[in-house]
């Protein structure tokens, strides 16, 4: 009885992710493994039940490896160096593997050895082939990185015309290459394993390496309660907690912002909007760096839910949502509108928040020449000159007078009516949340 191919594949993919986690977090997991590491450069873990015929799914873990990916042009050099290191590592691995192979052959119990590579009879040859495959993969990656670097050189000096999608696609390209490479490394045959750790150690070590990039990944594994979950949108960066809405329109939403009672002050400086603030279960801003990572990792759609003090509930849906990094001042990109609340983000030619930079009371990146919209309207937002929407405005429990700095959505029925000294209304609740475009609940 042979295990189906996908079974092995999925455990290898888990291993690939785990590998990236280890690469990132060189404190805890690695200390844990200090002993095994001292004796062997790579480690095998079983990742499921063996079949009766002796085929076992398992995965290989390698020593920590750090591959820094470019945030800017200059970092490309570093990546090339890292790839060089990778090449050396592959050579060392190959040597280690050959040494180990001899010993492994001695230790092997005939019949039910748990160390056979599923789907391959001659594990030895398969191991060598794998190493060779990996080597050619490394040199291919290396030359592709060189090409990408040349490409960047051509673009260098024309930063203005270098559109964001370009930079992102290069970053994503390198990301996917490294992910692929990691996959290959991890699927190396585990010939060394019998030497590295006792069978008991192998069996007792849990395998839980899957990465959840956003709330939709939790939905996919069956989580249905709206709760706080930990996500890792970018395996190279840290993970963090988010609130997941598993109810609205099928669920799977990662909530970026919530207003409901005025318990959190939203008049805050750049650093606060960058890092995030508030209480994930009540009112909060998730943080621009996190929003950037989430919207970079997958194509996202944005849903905005609004409610006024009369109990009217409306929503806006944008079929694309992306927030650039801090270097690009967290510039907003929204796609086509659909919904009931009106397209206040793209109100008209003069009031359009799409493609605008983020401004805060202490950082003026807006299009208003004679002042700072963020200071005037007490908020961090993608101000134009200045606004047709401001969901981070002040929380008012009732109608107010003066500067229109409340929670504002310009297309809300009656909200934009201009009576110079009259009362203005504010929204009671607001929520912004994202979900992968291709997610099907
Ligand atoms: C590593 O993981 C531990 C616990 O999982 C966490 O406390 C620590 O902050 C992480 N370190 C880094 C650098 O991410
Ligand atoms: C790695 O790349 C190859 C060729 O580009 C592709 O066929 C393969 O599916 C990729 N593997 C993964 C895990 O992405
Ligand atoms: C919110 O914070 C700002 C800046 O720290 C402060 O000026 C303002 O008074 C605070 N508002 C409330 C309602 O506490
Ligand atoms: C991601 O990494 C970058 C650079 O290392 C850092 O500036 C940023 O704050 C990180 N983002 C998060 C959400 O940890
Ligand atoms: C709005 O989006 C929903 C969900 O994607 C879709 O079912 C509906 O047809 C869209 N409506 C319009 C007018 O595009
Ligand atoms: Ca200004």
Automatic annotation (TrEMBL):
Tell me which InterPro entries the record gives: FIB_ANG-like (IPR037579), Fibrinogen-like_C (IPR036056), Fibrinogen_a/b/g_C_1 (IPR014716), Fibrinogen_a/b/g_C_dom (IPR002181), Fibrinogen_CS (IPR020837)
Tell me the Pfam families matching this sequence.
Fibrinogen_C
Which positions, given as ranges, span the membrane? none
* Coiled coil spans: 76-103, 131-158
Q: Which UniProt keywords apply?
A: Coiled coil, Disulfide bond, Glycoprotein, Secreted, Signal
Signal peptide region = 1-23
Q: Which GO terms describe its cellular component?
A: fibrinogen complex
- Does the keyword Electron transport feature in the UniProt annotation? no
* Cellular compartments annotated: Secreted
**Region described as Disordered:** 104-129
A Gene Ontology BP annotation from the UniProt entry: fibrinolysis
Q: Where is the Fibrinogen C-terminal domain?
A: 206-438
Q: Which domain of life is it from?
A: Eukaryota
Q: Which PANTHER family match?
A: FIBRINOGEN ALPHA CHAIN, FIBRINOGEN C-TERMINAL DOMAIN-CONTAINING PROTEIN
Protein name from the UniProt record: Fibroleukin
Q: Which organism is it from?
A: Castor canadensis (American beaver)
Q: Which gene encodes it?
A: FGL2
